[in-house]
From TrEMBL:
The gene is tsaD. This is tRNA N6-adenosine threonylcarbamoyltransferase. Residues 45-327 form the Gcp-like domain. It holds the Pfam family TsaD. It comes from Dyella thiooxydans. GO terms for biological process: tRNA threonylcarbamoyladenosine modification. Coiled coil: none annotated.
Length: 360
């Protein structure tokens, strides 16, 4: 989604009622209700529900887009009703609707966008399409001690590994991006090639906890040269060769998993330190599914203690895709009078830097 498309954002009066957030970018259906409270955004979260399609896609070893779309159709409206009931609200209480417009799977995005637009039109309330990665980036604002810009954000998930300089909401500069496999994708693919069950990333991280340090060592990709971009496809190949040449015992599997996780985490930590040094920022936000990795959290916290920067993480349930982060990002923009017309549009690819600032 480029600047031209987003220029359709209009300004108007801020919403006063709770915002319904809908997330359907991939294989999780998330719904949340949030009343915007600038001083304490997390306290405005009224209810949130999430349905994961992990079991649906497990037999295929990965997400099947058509099946994901169909399951969103089945689950979305029941989840909306459940979330409203949990908060003790009715549709008529809503002040706005926010939904993930991209990036993501086109069919899955269309389910959420169509439902959101229909509800907003029927209720006569504004609606806005949210950038999925902006949702992740802002998720730490749901915590009791949220970060304030400026800061650097590390966004690490199955489809993205990027470092972003954040001067304010909507003021984003991408410092580094993935050139091939994102960190989460590398976790999943590496787990699959070693025969671990789907979803592979969490399984590999759990197995790494049983590994013996030092038996294997893999390179830290692109850390031997300047720059902040990421590339993890070569690391995946190194693991494949090590696994094929090993005795393939359970202990060896764990040892390789540990060495792989160490390589990923070390690479991310090195790049974060470089980004903070380059920007002069003293705050680091980590968000996205890989942000739930315990080794990454521990290593970045330790690096912050040593180098004098502070790290911010969303709680574990808000690292992976969820409706709360979409409700929050949408509520912020709606509170500043931004909304869009009734056209149903989704953007499987969408440049984060193209977003307008969230200003009156």
């Amino acid at each position: 989604m480029g600047t031209t498309e987003f220029s359709k954002v209009a300004t108007g009066s801020a919403v006063t009622g709770p915002v319904l957030g809908i997330e359907t970018s991939c294989d999780e259906t998330g719904v949340a209700l949030l009343r915007w409270q600038p001083e304490a955004p997390g306290e405005g979260l009224l209810a949130h529900t999430l349905y994961s399609q992990i079991k649906l896609h497990a037999d295929y070893g990965g997400v099947v887009p058509e099946l994901a779309s169909r399951d969103h159709v089945r689950k979305l409206l029941p989840l909306v009703r459940e979330t409203l009931a949990e908060a003790g609200l009715t549709p008529q209480d809503l002040g706005g609707v926010a939904y993930t417009a991209g990036p993501g799977l086109a069919g899955a995005l269309l389910v959420g966008a169509s439902a959101a637009r229909a509800m907003a039109w029927a209720l006569g309330v504004p609606a806005i399409g949210v950038h999925h990665m902006e949702g992740h980036l802002l998720a730490p604002l749901l915590e009791a001690d949220p970060p304030e810009p400026p800061f650097v954000a590390l966004l690490v998930s199955g489809g993205h590994s990027m470092l972003v300089e954040v001067a304010g909401i909507g003021h984003y500069r991408i410092l580094g991006d993935t050139l091939d496999d994102a960190a989460g994708e590398a976790f999943d693919k590496t787990a699959k090639l070693m025969g671990l069950p789907y979803p592979g990333g969490p399984a590999l991280a759990a197995l790494a906890g049983q590994g013996q340090p030092g038996r294997f060592r893999f390179s830290r990709p692109m850390t031997d040269r300047p720059g902040l971009d990421f590339s993890f496809s070569g690391l995946k190949t190194q693991v494949l060769l090590a696994w094929q040449g090993s005795d393939q015992s359970e202990q060896t599997r764990a040892d390789i998993a540990l060495a792989f996780e160490e390589a990923i985490v070390d690479t991310l930590v090195i790049k974060c330190r470089r980004a903070l040094e380059a920007t002069g920022a003293a705050r680091l936000v980590i968000a996205g599914g890989v942000g739930a990795n315990r080794r990454l959290r521990a290593e970045l916290a330790a690096a912050g203690d040593k180098d004098g920067f502070r790290t911010y993480f969303p709680r574990l349930q808000f690292c992976t895709d969820n409706g709360a982060m979409i409700a929050l990002a949408g509520a912020i923009r709606l509170a500043h009078g931004q909304h869009q017309d009734a056209t149903v549009q989704v953007f499987p690819r969408w440049d984060l830097e193209s977003l307008p600032p969230a200003t009156p």
